[in-house]
Amino acid sequence: MQIQGYFDLKFEALKDAFAALFDDPQERGAALCVQIGGETVLDVWAGVADKDGQQAWHSDTILNLFSCTKTFTAVTALQLVGEGKLELDAPVSRYWPEFAAAGKARITLRHLLCHQAGLPALRQMLPAEALYDWPAMTSTLAAEEAWWPLGEGHGYAPITYGWLVGELLRRVEGRGPGESIVARIAKPLGLDFHVGLADEEFDRVAHISRGKGGMGDAAAQRLLKVMMSDSSAMTTRAFSNPPSIMTSTNKPQWRRMQQPAANGHGNARSLAGFYSGLLDGRLLEGELLDELTREHAVGDDKTLLTRTRFGLGCMLDQPEVANATYGMGAQAFGHPGAGGSSGFADPERDVAFGFVVNNLGPFVLMDPRAQKLARVLADCL
Which ranges carry the Beta-lactamase-related domain (predicted)? Predict the structure, then answer.
């Protein structure tokens, strides 16, 4: 496989490990970028970007990063906290009065950001097109009753997170949440990152497809079993209501919408650049960065049915849990995206890591491909 890009010779083993991914005939396209102390030490890509395997992956290929987007959203919210426009521990209903319905008056922005609010899913099935109707989704969530009492654990909100936090951004900024994220994070750092993609960018977006045959790990199999057997379970609803959530990534209307839980588009370089910006203090003051990366929720996740550990809108490392470690230091923080893409920072080594892939793996938290690359990177240091 022809590997394009740049690497410092000290990281040749990492470049070789990246190339070895393509020994799997199912692998299609991928990119990896590593920055240390803000300097790029490796930025490589390979494979194909289109559905038919005819179009090479280029330096400027971007793709849907799924939940990697969530940390960008959380950082935007924390910037507004720093400016006094939002408060972490004020009730959400202070900014969004309708949200107090159905006993939710005590839920705060902090609860939303660390998945303790009890709103990972909607009970009443919605039509597929509701996915693209912002007012319909936010008003349905405002009326929804929490799935568990406040203070009784956490459950990851795969997509409702985007409407919940995004609506607060929209209300205090007076613009689409994606516009806030791009203006506050992507533009100042010069990142090729978008939440709400312009049509003229579509021709450089990689087509995403699922790998065949892989069963994933025990956590993935547990999740699949519930989703196949109980259509009304909270977990099933979280991923399939509206029913278009899991099947829309390549659609134009998905690319265009501003869904800041799951439809950020960027590349490995934009993930690494974002985490470099967090490490060097360009995005958040120290106190707010501490809030972002401090443990807020840990234990059995009511949605994902596996052990998760969250800061505010970021997933914290669990070194002793095979499917929940990034593969470097125990202080690492970041976010995986569905199917394999991953961005994280390891503050102990001043490392920012971005890996993206368009062949989705069947894993719930960390993808073994990204973990293996991170471990090789650690050996190179």
Answer: 18-371
What is the pLDDT of the chain when averaged over all its residues? Answer: 96
Beta carbons within 10 angstroms of residue 228's beta carbon: 9
CA distances from 298 to 36, 49, 58, 216, 309 (A): 29, 37, 39, 23, 4
Classify 4-67+222-233+264-380 by CATH class: alpha beta
- Residue 191: phi and psi, rounded to 5, are -90, 140
In one-letter notation, the amino acid at residue 231 is: S
* Tokens matching residue 380: 């190179």
Segment 315-331, tens digit of pLDDT:
999 999 999 999 999 99
Sign of CA dihedral 168, 169, 174, 178: negative
Beta bridge partners of 43: 6, 33
H or E element that contains 266:
strand 264-266
Integer Cα distance of 269 and 360 in angstroms:
19
Model pLDDT, residue 48:
97
Q: Where are the beta strands (DSSP E) in 147-263?
A: 194-195, 209-210
Give 345's contacts (C-beta < 8 A, 6+ positions apart).
275, 276, 278, 279, 332, 333, 334, 351, 352, 353
Contact yes or no for 306/323 (Cβ under 8 A): yes
* Tens-place pLDDT, residues 260-289: 999 999 999 999 999 999 999 999 999 999
Contact between 4 and 42 under an 8 Å Cβ cutoff? The reply is: no
- Number of Cβ within a 10 Å radius of residue 10: 12
Instruction: Count other C-beta atoms under 10 Å from residue 149's C-beta.
Output: 9
Q: How many CB atoms lie within 10 A of CB 103?
A: 12
Please state the domain extents for the chain. 4-67+222-233+264-380
Using CA atoms of 371, 373, 375, 376 in order, give the dihedral in degrees to the nearest 10: 170
Q: How far is residue 371's CA from residue 337's CA, in Å, rounded to a whole number?
A: 13
Return the structure tokens found at 263: 């439809």
Using a cut of 0.90, tell me whether the model's pTM lies above it.
yes
Rounded CA separation 261/193 (Å): 14
What CA–CA distance (Å, rounded) separates 343 from 326? Answer: 9
DSSP, collapsed to helix, strand or coil, labels residue 271 as: helix
